[in-house]
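Run: sequence + magnesium ion -> complex structure.
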Amino acid sequence: SKTAYVRTKPHLNIGTMGHVDHGKTTLTAAITKVLAERGSGSSTQYVSFDRIDRAPEEAARGITINIAHVEYETDTRHYAHVDMPGHADYVKNMVTGAAQLDGAILVVSALDGIMPQTAEHVLLARQVGVNHIVVALNKADAGDEELTDLVELEVRELLSAHGYGGDSVPVVRVSGLKALEGDPRWTGAIDALLDAVDTYVPMPERYLDAPFLLPVENVLTITGRGTVVTGAVERGTIRVGDRVEVLGASVDTVVTGLETFGKPMEEAQAGDNVALLLRGVARDAVRRGHIVAAPDSVVPSRHFSAQVYVLSTREGGRTTPVSTGYRPQFYIRTADVVGDVDLGERAVARPGETVTMTVSLGRDVPLEPGLGFAIREGGRTVGAGTVTSVG
Ligand code: GDP
Ligand code: MG
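>> structure
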């Protein structure tokens, strides 16, 4: 039988962000390798590059399926780490995943410096409320020192421009590739990076007393057991036997199983990445974007006001203004919903501007002030916003 999850250290969710090919997946693998080989007191298992980069379909094991996540443990903390795809087509996943991040590792190749997706990910991180970023200046094994100094300056400027206090953000020069090969200079750099994450990313406030809420990221069936939903607990706690409702599916049910990273657990709490087995729920009744919540704890709605930054053309946004009547997709938590935009008296918003708007969504979703979201159109992100009021 499976070993139960024992909560011995504070749990945080972090992830790698940055331009494609700057080394996010290599670094993720290197982190698990360095920690796995540290031995004493660490339960970390090495996860190879190929196991991180493979397609989700191949990965269904236990009732935890979200293989974008790896787990590891430093001396002081337990981390769930999501290796976010770098390509713009996957920004949708980054946005919905990043909504739960307590901190992020921004991976920048010392050889290439800031690239368009580097800037886009920093912007999105800001918009979805990631308040702490640590920089991994990767490929430092191959970079020229003076050029790397310039890249560091450039990254600090970018972070300052987005309100991250670029002067105080830790920037660590690493080589994921050399650390994977076991080169002591570079395994030491991974240790330094992890120390920076441990100390610079604060333990966030967890809303444990709030009613349970989990945005559904994935749904799967376990033969003989039933339907399982996975995702990160946004707030509250949940135990086996608790009643829940699934908003979007209009289903009332009971949680009959609870796991994290393939390990059964008694109680999950805000911040945990979990899989919930739901009693008597048909596989096709639930999907990504639905919300599992304590019964009667949320009232979904479709009208809200928001502060929105319309991405500039340079950031990959639109080339033309948006106006009232615009009808893009809204990515809110894990949901993807069409919405009608009303810009009020202002009537138009140009790329690069920050505006207030009211939105009427195509269906009801749980909304609240402070909630971050992305606006997408034709497969690319064109805006990022925050809900200011509901109704
Ligand atoms: P991702 O797209 O950001 O996940 O990047 P990958 O981890 O897939 O790496 C992209 C390429 O860069 C691969 O060919 C890696 O071998 C190479 N690479 C990654 N990290 C390093 C590094 O630290 N040094 C060098 N020289 N190459 C690296
Ligand atoms: Mg990758």
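>> summary
Residues 55-67, 86-90 have pLDDT under 50 and may be disordered. DSSP finds seven helices and 24 strands in the chain.
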